[in-house]
């Protein structure tokens, strides 16, 4: 399906017909398939790519799709419209395999050049050996080289599977008579959770509330963190701190993928066994409060910085308030929100931006586009408190720097017990990010009446794979990647 230019939503210097759709708008999805592969015949692949490119959904295409969804809903129709969105991204190994000089992408991005399998050691993933021979404890598929990934999002497995079949035929993997130019490494399917849990990750918390809004693109941002210049997410624009980009590397973005398994029954069991001992709360309420203090939001999405002791679904539903807080309510004691809560670790707002530090964190913002995978909890898992079926998050995020974005958040913030520095005035280390922090896992400040008490944390999230990619522009795909070798 080719993309027709549509009217731009606002004056912007971004060419919305040139940027892949997932980067700025997120491909609309109820389900999403990640197809990881190696390129086995470069010349053939680059010629077959010509036939694939018209399938790629641009930002303009996504905006058109979102408008169609809105119009459909307005008619009161509860069915889903058939819809599919395809994007593609290449790893450094992929560019090397294709004989394309990607020095522009690697020169200031060591994580991208190293590849995530080796970088996993720096991220804190468990494994054996040292870089460049590090072997993380990952699924075997992710221990292989991955050259590229094709993302296919849609309304149903049927729609997505049909598109995947069409793509496989283009690259000669299906019985089309075409010679194959690629080899599948692995295919992973993610699904938005059913019913009331839609939009919630597997621990039960509403996700996708706080993502950077982009100057000139998002015209009516909800109150919250400062808007970012487009170059934080799209290469070659104001805010891109990388080198000057050649034409083919403009209007792209780095895609970080992480295959993150969540120990959900164990997480629930931990909350049950460690309720926050606030006077007046039942054990169940104390457990719920602990969960909220680990994440920084209640399951509804309401931030505990604004509603510290009770969930407030009305606040959660109010776009004017749900992201409008800065963690500045308490100077000394983390009464409102523990310094190490997941959302405070990954976007510390006033902790860094305000005096005395006045540090800009615009370059550390990432656009998160993940989706859940795996089944809902079974009765047996709920009863035993033990995981029997793999489930978690297909974590995906975009930025124009992995070094300042994902890797920085993971290594310098999440895995660092002394971050954010606001806690220093109390002499109490905040601890690790209780969800994603790797290392000596503990957190302080979960008990508002005893901010120095330390809570040791089991591992709730286990990384089992991943890779770094670059998602090129349509022009880059057409004129450089698909050009005859
Ligand atoms: C299975 C793994 C993860 C789970 C269950 C999870 C869960 C959540 C939840 C529930 C929120 C709050 C919703 C929101 O503010 O949009 C959130 C926010 C966020 N997460 Fe995660 N997350 C995971 C992995 C990660 C990773 C690996 C990173 C990056 C290293 C990350 C970075 C962020 C950021 C930047 C925010 C928004 C903070 C803000 O703007 O206030 N998350 N996450």
Helix- and strand-based class? Answer: alpha+beta
**Small ligands present:** protoporphyrin IX containing FE
SSE order: HEHHEHHHHEEEHEEHHHHHEEHEHEEEH
Q: Report how far apart the termini are.
A: 26 Å
Question: Summed up, what is this model?
Answer:
This protein is of the alpha+beta class. The protein has helices at 21-24, 42-52, 59-74, 92-98, 103-106, 110-114, 116-123, 157-170, 264-273, 283-295, 313-316, 342-346, 350-353, 379-384, 406-414, 474-481, and strands at residues 31-39, 84-90, 127-128, 135-136, 148-154, 182-191, 253-262, 367-368, 371-373, 392-399, 442-444, 454-456, 461-471. The chain folds into two domains: 21-260 and 466-481, no CATH class; 263-362 and 413-462, no CATH class.
Description:
- By secondary structure, this protein is an alpha+beta fold.
- 26% of the residues lie in helices and 16% in strands.
- The chain has 2 domains: 21-260 and 466-481, no CATH class; 263-362 and 413-462, no CATH class.
- The protein has helices at 21-24, 42-52, 59-74, 92-98, 103-106, 110-114, 116-123, 157-170, 264-273, 283-295, 313-316, 342-346, 350-353, 379-384, 406-414, 474-481; strands spanning 31-39, 84-90, 127-128, 135-136, 148-154, 182-191, 253-262, 367-368, 371-373, 392-399, 442-444, 454-456, 461-471.
- The protein is globular.
- The two termini are 26 Å apart.
- It binds protoporphyrin IX containing FE (HEM).
- This is Peroxidase.
- Residues 18-194 form the DyP dimeric alpha+beta barrel domain.
- Keywords: Heme, Iron, Metal-binding, Oxidoreductase, Peroxidase, Signal.
- Residues 243-414 form the Dyp-type peroxidase C-terminal domain.
């Amino acid at each position: 399906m080719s993309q027709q230019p549509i009217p731009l939503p606002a004056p912007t210097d971004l060419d919305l017909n040139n940027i892949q759709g997932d980067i700025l708008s997120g491909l609309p999805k109820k389900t999403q398939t990640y197809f990881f592969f190696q390129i086995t015949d470069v010349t053939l692949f680059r010629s077959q790519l010509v036939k694939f490119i018209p399938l790629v959904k641009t930002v303009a295409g996504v905006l058109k799709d979102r408008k169609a969804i809105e119009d459909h809903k307005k008619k009161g129709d509860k069915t889903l419209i058939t819809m599919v969105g395809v994007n593609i991204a290449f790893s450094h190994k992929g560019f090397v395999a294709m004989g394309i000089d990607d020095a522009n992408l690697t020169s200031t991005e060591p994580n991208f050049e190293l590849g995530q399998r080796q970088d996993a050691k720096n991220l804190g993933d468990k494994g054996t050996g040292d870089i460049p021979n590090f072997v993380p404890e990952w699924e075997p598929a992710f221990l292989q080289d991955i050259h590229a990934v094709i993302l296919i999002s849609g309304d149903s497995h049927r729609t997505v599977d049909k598109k995947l079949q069409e793509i496989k035929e283009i690259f000669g993997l299906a019985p089309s008579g075409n010679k194959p130019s690629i080899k599948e490494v692995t295919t992973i399917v993610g699904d938005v959770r059913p019913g009331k849990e839609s939009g919630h990750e597997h621990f039960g918390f509403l996700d996708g509330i706080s993502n950077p809004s982009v100057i000139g693109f998002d015209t009516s941002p909800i109150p919250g963190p400062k808007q970012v210049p487009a170059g934080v997410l799209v290469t070659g624009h104001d805010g891109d701190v990388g080198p000057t980009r050649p034409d083919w590397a403009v209007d792209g973005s780095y895609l970080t993928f992480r295959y993150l398994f969540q120990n959900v029954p164990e997480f629930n069991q931990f909350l049950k066994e460690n309720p926050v001992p606030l006077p007046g709360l039942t054990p169940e309420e104390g457990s719920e409060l602990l969960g909220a203090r680990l994440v920084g939001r209640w399951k509804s999405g309401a931030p505990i910085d604004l509603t510290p002791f009770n969930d407030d679904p009305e606040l959660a539903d109010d776009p004017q308030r749900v992201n409008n807080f800065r963690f500045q309510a308490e100077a000394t004691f983390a009464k409102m929100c523990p310094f190490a809560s997941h959302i405070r670790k990954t976007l510390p707002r006033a902790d860094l931006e305000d005096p005395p530090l006045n540090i800009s964190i615009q370059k550390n913002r990432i656009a998160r586009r993940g989706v859940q995978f795996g089944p809902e909890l079974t009765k047996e898992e709920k009863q035993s408190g033990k995981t029997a079926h793999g489930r978690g998050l297909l974590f995906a995020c975009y930025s124009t720097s992995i070094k300042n974005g994902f890797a920085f958040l993971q290594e310098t913030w999440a895995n660092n017990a002394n971050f954010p520095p606001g806690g220093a005035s109390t002499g109490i280390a905040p601890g690790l990010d209780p969800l994603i922090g790797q290392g000596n896992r503990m957190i302080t400040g979960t008990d508002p009446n005893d901010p120095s008490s330390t809570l040791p944390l089991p591992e709730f999230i286990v990384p089992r794979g991943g890779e770094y990619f670059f998602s090129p522009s349509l022009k880059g795909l057409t004129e450089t990647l698909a050009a005859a070798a």
